[in-house]
Design a protein that fits this description.
six-stranded parallel sheet; two-stranded antiparallel ribbon; 221 residues; 8 strands; globular; 9 helices
Length: 221
C-alpha cells in the first residue's frame, strides 16, 4: 500500500499573507527609536529567515546593541496577537479542503517563532488536521538547515523523497533540496520565479489549487 501523500508548508508568504502586519510592527519600532522606516514592499526581501534576519535586513549598518533592542521591542509589539490584516491567501482553504479529502498528511515548518506559528495555525486553520506544526526553536537550526524537515518526515513515517515541501522563498527551496524533498515554489508569495528556480524549485505554481495537479501527476507516474 502506498504511503499517504505528505505536504510540508511554509507559513508566511505561502499559507498566510502577513507582510503588511510584519512591516507595520517593525516600522512602529523603528519610529519609536527614530530609525528610518521601510516601504512595505521592501519587507518582501527582509523576511523568510526569522526575526534575526528580519532585524539585520531592516537595520543594515546598525550595531548589535541597537539590533538587540529592536528585536526585543518587535517581539513585544508583535507579541502573539492575531493581527487583523494577516489572513490566508485566496484559494488556500479550497486547497486544504481538497488535500483533506485525499487524506494527505499536512504539516507546517516556519522560521517564524514557534509560539507565533502555533497560534496562527490554530486560529486560521484550526479545522484542518495539521499533524506537525513547527516554528523557529532555540534548539533546532532554522531553515534552510534540513533538520526540522527531516524530523517531520520521521514523525510521519514518510521517506523524505516522497514529501512535497511548499514555500515562497529561496530558503524554502534550499530546505527542500537539503532534505531530499520535492520543492514546490509558489508565485503568490514574497519572492519571484527567478529566485525560486535558481534555488532548485522542482515545480512552480501560480494558484494554490495547482498543487493538486502535481500531486495527482506524481501519484500516477
Amino acid at each position: 500500500m502506498k504511503n499517504k501523500k505528505t505536504i510540508i508548508f511554509d507559513l508566511d508568504g505561502t499559507l498566510i499573507d502577513s507582510l503588511e502586519d510584519i512591516a507595520n510592527c517593525m516600522n512602529q519600532v523603528l519610529n519609536e527609536l527614530n530609525i528610518p522606516t521601510h516601504k512595505i514592499d521592501d519587507y518582501k526581501y527582509f523576511v523568510g529567515g526569522g526575526i534575526s534576519v528580519l532585524v539585520d535586513n531592516a537595520l543594515v549598518g546598525y550595531n548589535d546593541e541597537i539590533k538587540t533592542e529592536v528585536t526585543k521591542k518587535f517581539k513585544i509589539v508583535y507579541d502573539q496577537k492575531l493581527h487583523a490584516k494577516t489572513k490566508p491567501y485566496d484559494g488556500i482553504y479550497e486547497l486544504l479542503d481538497e488535500l483533506t479529502k485525499l487524506n494527505c498528511n499536512l504539516a507546517v515548518l516556519s522560521n517564524k517563532p514557534h509560539e507565533f506559528t502555533i497560534q496562527y495555525v490554530n486560529s486560521l486553520f484550526g479545522k484542518y488536521d495539521f499533524k506537525e506544526v513547527h516554528g523557529q526553536k532555540n534548539n533546532i537550526p532554522k531553515k534552510p538547515n534540513p533538520t526540522a524537515a527531516i524530523d517531520i518526515a520521521n514523525n510521519l513515517n514518510t521517506p523524505c523523497e516522497e514529501i512535497y515541501f511548499v514555500g515562497d522563498t529561496m530558503v524554502d527551496m534550499q530546505t527542500a533540496k537539503n532534505a531530499n524533498m520535492t520543492a514546490v515554489g509558489v508565485l503568490w508569495g514574497f519572492r519571484d520565479e527567478k529566485e525560486l528556480k535558481e534555488n532548485g524549485a522542482d515545480f512552480l505554481i501560480k494558484n494554490p489549487i495547482d498543487l493538486l495537479k502535481i500531486i495527482n501527476k506524481t501519484n500516477n507516474d
